[in-house]
Amino acid sequence: LRDTWSGFQTSIDKVTVPVARPESEMPLGEVISLFVGQCGTQISQALWELISVEHGIGPDGTLVDPGAQTEDDTAGAEVLFTHTQKDRFVPRAAIVDSEPTVVDEIRNGLYRGMFNPARLVTGLEDMANNFGRGYYGCPQNLVDQGMNAVRKEAEQADKLQSCLIFHAFGGGTGSGTTCRLVELLDAEFMKVPKIEMAIYPDYHKSCSVVEPYNAVLCSSTLDEISSFAIMIENDALTKICNESLRMERPAYPNLNRVLAHACSGILAPLTFDGPLTASLPQLQTNLVPYPRLHFLQASLNPMFTHDITIHESITIQELTIGAFNTINQMMVGDPKETVMMAAALLYRGQIPIQEINSSIDTIKKRGLIGLVDWCPTGFKIGVVPTLPAVIKASGIGKTNRQLTALYNSTLIVSPLRSNLHKFRVLLSKKAFVHWYLQEGMEQGEFQECMEDVLNILQDYLFVEKTLVHNRTGGGAADNVHGPPPRPDRQSRHSAGTQNSHSDAGASSDGAGGSAVFGGGGVGGGSVVSVPAPNSSFRLSPSPAAPASITRQSDHTGQGKDDGGEDDDDDEDEDDDEEDDDDDDDDDDDDDDDDDEDDDGDD
After folding, report:
1. Of 43, 192, 383, 588, which one has the greatest count of Cβ atoms within 10 A?
2. CA distance 360 to 367
3. Helix, coil or strand: residue 57
4. What is the DSSP string of 473-489?
5. Which sequence ranges are marked TM in the entry (predicted)?
């Protein structure tokens, strides 16, 4: 017994207790990508082409040089790829389109051996640029197959981090079918962040007359489901190709490859080791101060051609400041003329953290961007030493450092305002509405969705006006109240054709003024004032009003009694009726009846 006990103690001494890995080295989890519609499918081709080159994966899914890569090198690739038993890497992606033309390019293309054929889901006919057909008229088997493809990928993940959704706001499949799929995803994977990388309609160019309808309906539906959305405009991508890459007539593959570099910069902290990590949930926490203010913008710096990168270099300060230049933006506008709530700077290359902090201090001291005072830090940093790969056909040169910037600012105000103006002009004449009604939609849904997007626009304007008020002598105490939570809504699919809620009297008070929007359905005779693209909201003088957003909501579409504030609302509604040329006699009669009811309540 003595010998047995001695041997047992010896075996215990030889046992090595595993040391816990630090939190910075823990795996961040897998990411599933969902590409919907023609736009999403074409983006997937450029994105997986670039990501596979960065990780040394060939077009058939095998490693290009297996002997040169260790398990640690391929561990990062497993965030985006599934490592099969046959030593192949298959993208954790599902591609869904209503017609097979574009997806067949993948099935018959160079990378056909990389994708799982079961994850390429197609229908038989397109959705005719109709949100109603994409949402209500989409074949049930297409939706079921798309959901099953995502579900299978989620089952193969050990720790699902988030789901990326690539689509376009203006298409029928990209808007309607995406909303249908995302609602089902939210019901099944409620706690998984759902992040959009979306193409928003341009101001000058349009692929369809009904793009404003699709964009507003899609924005309203995904408002409370999406964790955050990175907004991209084709006009901005074209400008980058023209001025930075010296392309006279860039095609869509060129635009998609520029967008793929931005996506690669966002995903690099997930797949490569670095001193500072930035996972997608961390980006959501640092960039979304309020749930409704979740529309982000992106920029990429530098973007050089092959011949320029040989003769020029860029410092850390130039790299950081250049990310906020107009030429590097992926949404048309100048971020220096907007109000910024938060930003994430994702660097690639050998970059000292001290120089990053010095560059940020320079931006703050010079006042190059307008930062809100209630977010004093304002910047999330991510650093990955691995350099970005380049595709020779893209025309983008290889650099020794690169910066992908994500920021939440009021730069989104101009696109939202422009699209709402187009939406109102079309809806005032009920143009093309019958195509949507034939698919099962109701006319009241148009008004409800327009009010939802108006509320989003109003919240961004509140942030902008508050900063201007503080700069002109207002106190910082005006900033303590943020946009209020929005009432819960049922999904359009589960609630049928009934309107789930109606914002009747949303009012905002920023720099000593207020902006009041009427509510209710189309048949209720209410007036919703939508400004023109180059105009601003009319502010009624009320300096004594509190600097907070108050919202009155009722399912009947009428404002509730709130003391003496109803009188001010009635006066603002009368002013809107006098200024709006599109009001008919029936609307005036209904508004008079509403005013009499409010006076009777008072």
Report:
1. 43
2. 11
3. strand
4. T--GGGGS--PPPPPP-
5. none
In a domain, 428, yes or no: no
Residue 410: its pLDDT value, please? 94
Tokens of 133: 């057909």
Q: Within this chain, do residues 585 and 515 fall inside the same structural domain, yes or no?
A: yes
Verify that 546 and 403 share a domain, yes or no: no
Q: In what order do the strands lie in the sheet with 513-518?
A: 505-509, 513-518, 540-541
Cα separation, 272 vs 76, in Å, equals 6
Residue type, 197: M
What 3-state class would DSSP assign to 90? strand
Pairing of strands 81-83, 89-91: antiparallel
Measured distance CA(102)–CA(120) in Å, rounded: 11
Angle, nearest 10°, between helix axes 252-271 and 37-54?
A: 50
Phi–psi pair at 349, nearest 5 degrees: 120, 175
- The dihedral sign for the CA sequence 286, 289, 295, 299: negative
Please, what are the averages of pLDDT over each run of 10 residues along the chain (602 residues)?
A: 46 36 56 97 97 94 80 83 93 97 95 95 94 95 96 95 97 96 96 96 88 97 95 96 92 95 96 91 94 95 80 85 93 89 95 94 89 86 93 87 95 95 96 96 95 95 74 44 45 46 37 35 40 42 35 38 44 47 48 47 44
Task: Using the Cα atoms of residue 488, residue 458, residue 546 and residue 336 in order, give the sign of their dihedral.
Answer: positive
Distance of CA 348 to the CA centre of its chain: 22
Q: In this structure, is residue 572 part of a structural domain?
A: yes
Per-residue pLDDT at 95: 98
Determine phi and psi for 272, rounding to 5 degrees. -125, 150
- What is the rounded radius of gyration, in angstroms, for the C-alpha atoms of the chain? 26
Encoded tokens for 455: 């509320």
What number of other Cβ atoms are within 10 A of residue 240's Cβ? 23
Quickly list H helices, 398-520: 413-428, 433-437, 443-471, 492-495
Reported as half-sphere exposure (CB side, CA atoms, 13 A), residue 469 has a value of 20
The β-bridge relationship of strands 81-83 and 160-168 is unpaired
Of 128, 217, 121, 101, the closest CA to residue 169 belongs to 217
User: Three-class SS of residue 301?
Assistant: strand
Question: Alpha-carbon distance 414 to 507, whole Å?
Answer: 20
Q: Both 402 and 527 in a single domain? A: no
Q: Give the integer Cα–Cα distance in Å for 6 and 537.
A: 85
Task: Let me know whether 364 and 458 are in one domain.
Answer: no
**Residue 434 within any structural domain of the chain:** no
Q: Is 596 exposed, middle or buried (0-12, 13-18, 19+ CB in 10 A)?
A: exposed
In the DSSP assignment, the letter for residue 518 is E
User: What's the number of CA atoms in the CB half-sphere (13 Å) around residue 129?
Assistant: 12
In sequence order, which residues have a C-beta less than 8 Å from that of residue 410 and are 6 or more positions away? 338, 339, 340, 460, 461, 463, 464
Return the pLDDT at 470.
54
The label of the residue with tokens 């599934």 reads 82
If 0-12 CB within 10 Å is exposed, 13-18 middle and 19+ buried, where does residue 404 land? buried
* Nearest in space to 97 (alpha carbons), one of 74, 58, 126, 129: 126
Owning domain of residue 556: 442-483+500-601
Q: What tokens were used for 363?
A: 């931006």
Tokens 């298409």, located at residue: 171
For position 377, what pLDDT does the model report? Answer: 81
